Structures are given as C-alpha cells and as structure tokens.
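Regression test attached.
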Amino acid sequence: MNGAANPAADTTDIRRPPPPARRWTGLRIAGWILMSLWILASLGTAWMLWSGFDGEVFGRYFPRMLAGLWITVKLVVIPITLGAVLGLLLAWARLSGNRLLDAAAFSYMYFFRGTPMLAQVFLVYYGSGQLRPLLEDWGLWWFFREAWYCVLLAFTLNTAAYQAEIYRVAIAAVPRGQWEGAMALGLSRRVTFLKVILPQAMITALRPLGNEIILMIKGSAIASVVTIFDLMGATRLAFSRTFSFDVYLWAAMLYLAIVEAMRRLWERIEARLTRHLRREGEESA
Amino acid sequence: MWDALQLLSFGDGGWGDELLAGLKVTVTLALATLPFGLAMGLLVALGQISGEPALRRAARIYTTIFRGLPELLTIFIVYYGGQMLLQKVAGLFTDTYIEVNSFLAGMLALGLVFSAYASEVFLSAFRGIPAGQWEGAAALGFNRWQTFRLVILPQLIRLSIGGLGNLWLILTKETSLVSVIALDELLRQTSVAVGVTKQPILFYSVACLIYLVLSLVSSRGLVAIERRVNRGEAR
C-alpha cells in the first residue's frame, strides 16, 4: 500500500527501522473474530462429522457418491465439449453478416440464456414424453426415453448459448487489422479465421470459458432433479434414506474440492497458453 | 389452440391464476433476496479491500465457499441444516416439531450466493476508483464514513451497476431452484399444472416465456437505473 522503495537504493547498507508494532484496531479485532468464527465452524463441522460418524452409512453411501462424482464429471465434460462446437457455430452465425442467420442465433441464445436451466431440463425431459408418438416415428425415442440423454441434450443446448456469447465477444475483440493483414497476405477467409483470428480470440475467451466450466460443474447438480444419480443425486438419495445431514457436508466438501481444483488447473492452463504474452521477468497473473 | 387458451385462462378451469401466483412468489423472492445480498456483498468486499490480513482472509473464505458450492446444494444445506439446528435449539425447551419456512430458507441461500458474487463485483469497482479520491477526501478533512458515503459510494454504484445487473438476472433464474424445497414459485406451479393436465410442452414453454419477459423487463429497468446513476457523467 505505501510507496515501495526504489529497488536500486536497496543495495546499499541502509538499516531500516523495525516496522512499528501493529495496533489492535477495531478492524483487526473484527478480522480475528471473523477468522475465529470460521475456525470454530470448521472445527464444529469436523467434530459433528467425527462424533456422528456412522461406518455403515459411510460404507454404503460414500462409494455411491464417488460414483456420482464421476457422473458429474461426465455431465460437465460432454456438454462443454459438444457445446463448444455448437457455440462456435452460433458465434459464427451471429458474426456472419447474414441477417437471417444472425436473428436465428440471437433468438436461440436469448432463449437459453434468459430462462432457468431447470426449466429447460424439464422442457426436454417431460416435453419429449408428450411427443412420444412423433419421436417413435422418427426413430428417436430411444434417445429421449433416457433421462440421461435428455439431461445431456439440455445441458449442451444451454452451455452452447453461453459459450457462443463468449466466443462472439472474443472474436469481435480481435482487431480488424488482423483480418486485413491476412487478406493482404492472400489467405482465404477460412484459413484466416482458423489460423489467425480463432487462436487470438481463444486467448480472450479463456477466462470466461473457465468460469463457464465452473458454472457447469455447479449447475450439473440440477440433473439430480430428474432422477440422475450424479454427486448431488447420490447425496439426496443417501439423505432420503438415512436422514443423516452429514452426507450434505461430504457432498459440499467434494464439490468445493473439484471446483477449487478446476479453478487452479484452469489458472495453470491459462498461464501456460498466454506465456508468450508475458514480458520477461513479469510475474504470471 | 382453443384448448391451450382454456388451460391458461384465469379461473377454475385454467391455470393462469396459479401461474400468476407463482410468478408473484418468484418476483417477491428475488426482490427480498436483493437487500440482504447487496449489503452482505458490500461488507465482504470492504473486508477484502481492508488492510487487515485476518479480515481479508475471512472474506476470501466466504466467497470461496459460496461461489464454489452448487446453488442447489446451498439451498438444501440451509433448509435441512437450518431445520436441524432450530430443532436442536428448540429441543432444549419444547418438543414441538419445527418446519423451516422454505421462502426464508431459499432467500437466505440465494442471498449467500448472491453476496459472494456481488462482493467480487464491488471489489473490482473499488479497484476502479483512483486512490486520489480517498486522498482528496482525506485532504478535505472528511472522516472515513463521510468519505465512503459522499465520495466513494456514488462512484462505486456507477462502476458496479453493470455487474450487479447481471447478477440480478441470474438471481431471477435461480429462484427456480427453490422449487425443490417445495416453495410454490413459478416453476413449481408449472410442474403442478403439468402433473394435472399432462401438457408439459405447453406449460413449460409458457413458464420459459414468463421468465423471458421477466428478464426483458429487468433489462429495461436496469438500463433506466444505469442512465440515472450515470447522469452526472459528462460525455
């Protein structure tokens, strides 16, 4: 906070006076009270989990929750990947300059970003039941019969809309000179987009994309509402059978762990992919 | 077509009034969450910018937890955890069964999540206010509270209104999650209607449409608010 000393002057042997003792201001006391509250809360939780530990419940349901965790991972990875493809197409449609395409992509994105994901899941899952005869005619019923596929579809459609917005903004943020420079080099539009524009846009898109993945990890808990036994679903099942509140705390720790791990991993990836943008000796952000 | 209109009509045969009642709960819940979320978010952000390491760390833990937990899980934890806690406390005095109000539980859970995100918005807004503003106010002899109220807050609102607007739009959608603890908001009323009429496509589409209208109205309102808080800004 206070102005840093000139680093060049530091080489000479100047003895600094010791820093003044930090006083116990009101803020400092408040900070310590709040920290002790957190520590107490975590100790209390630990004690509750420890004293109320039921080996049978743990042995029966914790493996199920871990299996649910794996389903949660699938519920994130598959929609995010498929959504990236669809999202890029939508972003392309929005930037294509074709009014019809633009309007269609805009309405799609407006709908999926403006309505709750839970409602979208219901619409796909229960709505397809109503269309059963039609879907059977088209030979698609095997797909819509399964809650699993319905959820994957709804999640994909949802994240595609959010990702499309991310890509659209990122692509639009690439300076026009990049297009013009590529054109001057005689590159085709396709090559320009794939080799010049997209790599630069993806750098801008990295951070919001990381946020979208984290939102998807958290949002995937919605799948439990339509009988999918992801981490949340397994937890709810365990709770409904044992009425042991502990299972929710285990789930909370698992979710916090994967979200935190994902956040750190993404930071690493980001630092690695943007290493050419960093100046020498500069700390990574 | 006629059937659909009849199903959506107000009155005994139709579900229009039920959906409207649900919408009212949804809007009330979102509006009720807002003050708590904003105040808590501002406090947490103040903790994060304070020079006090313990305070900063406590604030950091808060945002890490409530931004990391799925909203659905937060709702369950507040609902069942609150119930358990109250039951234990009340058990010392009486042995009546206590049921936690799902509106209050939803409001608290959504408020915790909202405040964690809002604190990040406030934090970056604080960073957008030049240090000279604090120093200038100090030079004028303002005390800390005067500085905050008269110099910092007006700028803070201007800088954070965009981000807070986004959070508001997210909040209105997230109210739908409270349907899982049996709060009769829009989505739950819709599900009830679907259960009776077996018309999922019609009713869920209508529900989605209502959410869209809600966000459209909110966006309009936000634009107006933004214009109002920026009225002092010279262009």
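Expected vs. actual: identical. Chain B has one domain: 2-229.
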